[in-house]
Automatic annotation (TrEMBL):
This is NAD-dependent epimerase/dehydratase. It comes from Natrialba asiatica (strain ATCC 700177 / DSM 12278 / JCM 9576 / FERM P-10747 / NBRC 102637 / 172P1). Residues 3-222 form the NAD-dependent epimerase/dehydratase domain. One of its GO terms (molecular function) is aldehyde dehydrogenase (NAD+) activity. One of its GO terms (cellular component) is cytoplasm. InterPro entries: Epimerase_deHydtase, NAD(P)-bd_dom_sf, NAD(P)-dependent_oxidoreduct.
Length: 312
């Protein structure tokens, strides 16, 4: 198949290019600069310089594509401003609109939308699945909107739409995983009181990418949760990563203190359960994680860092 990927240079996107190519597909990856071209080419894809917000540009990029993938996000990192979040919203909503239109124009069979399991997190912390009612907040609302834009486009244009909702992902090259490791080594990554009992469904970015490949090859429409087999609390995840890195045992801080340094959204994320399962993805798309637990995934993270000479 020919796959057009927006977001092909990101943490998940780089893996999408490599994995689709490994499975014998032809990949065209949207890029915006020389660095992006190098990333896509190094993984066996063809870079296409274009503008996500320009319909004509995306129609040209998606020419002859069987599958169009929207894996672009602009999630801000340190101390985000409202303008940065607004850009992320635009990438999600307008990106979904432009890419579904391009998919229809070029006669694609399937459109895949990256989303996040957060959107279906239940207020009381109960476990949830793909059928659960959605409960977005101000940041995840645009992910819900992108899902709706995609599903509606599938009905209007007659192509399959797959929504792949990823758990809280981590990877050796993800900004937040690296920042986490660095802060642990400096003794500056405390555990928030209350996070010990709040298990969260997570996923290694390579397994998030392989979920897209499985759904593309299954050629189905639907919503799937891409998470590993063992939800883990932020406290246990941090403690395990600290042990791997021979870092100091993380200190405990109250939620109130943490709120002052990392903000309310992050504290809520880490102190409330987010429990879902991959059983629908396994059954319907034949997907299996390469890293079924966070211990398996953290071994890979730390091994990769060791090979790169990153962190002591
Ligand atoms: N989802 C989670 O679980 C989670 C949790 C905490 C933090 N994060 C952080 O969120 C980020 C998410 O990773 P990711 O793979 O989704 O994103 P990423 O690694 O930041 O990559 C984003 C992708 O979207 C593209 N993109 C951004 N703005 C674009 C635009 N206006 N037009 C076209 N393409 C655009 C980027 O292209 P360029 O390379 O050209 O910029 C890149 O290919 C990471 O930094 C991660 O550390 C994620």
């Amino acid at each position: 198949m020919r796959i057009f990927i927006a977001g092909s240079t990101g943490v998940i996107g780089r893996r999408l290019v490599a994995q689709f190519v490994d499975h014998g597909h032809t990949v065209v990856g949207l890029t915006r600069d020389d660095r992006g071209d190098d990333i896509v080419e190094a993984r066996g894809g063809d870079p296409y310089r274009g503008d996500l917000f320009d319909e004509e540009s995306m129609i040209r990029g998606a020419k002859d594509a069987d599958v169009v993938v929207h894996a672009a996000t602009a999630i801000p990192t340190d101390d985000p401003t409202p303008e940065e979040w607004a850009l992320n919203d635009r990438v999600r909503r307008e990106g979904a609109h432009v890419l579904t239109t391009a998919g229809a124009e070029v006669g694609a069979d399937q459109y895949l939308q990256q989303s996040i399991v957060w959107v279906a997190r239940q207020p009381g912390g109960a476990a949830f699945d793909e059928e659960s009612p959605l409960d977005p907040d101000s940041i995840t609302q645009s992910a819900v909107d992108a899902e709706e834009i995609a599903l509606e486009a599938g009905e209007n244009y007659g192509f399959d739409v797959g929504v792949v909702r990823c758990g809280y992902f981590y990877a050796p090259d993800a900004y937040h995983t690296r920042a986490h490791g660095e802060a642990l080594v400096r003794g500056k990554q405390p555990i928030i009181e209350g996070s010990e009992d709040a298990k969260i469904s997570r996923i290694h970015a390579s397994d998030a990418a392989s979920a897209f490949v499985a759904v593309a090859e299954a050629g189905e429409s639907g919503v799937w949760h891409a998470v590993d087999d063992e939800p883990v609390s932020a406290a246990a995840f941090s403690t395990s990563l600290a042990e791997h890195l021979d870092a100091p045992v993380p200190k405990r801080v109250s939620a109130e203190t943490a709120r002052r340094s990392v903000g309310d959204i992050q504290v809520k994320l880490l102190t409330n359960p987010m429990l879902t399962s991959n059983s629908k993805l396994r059954t319907e798309a034949g997907w299996e994680p390469a890293y079924p637990t966070y211990q398996d995934g953290l071994n890979d993270v730390v091994e990769t860092w060791g090979e790169e000479g990153y962190l002591p």
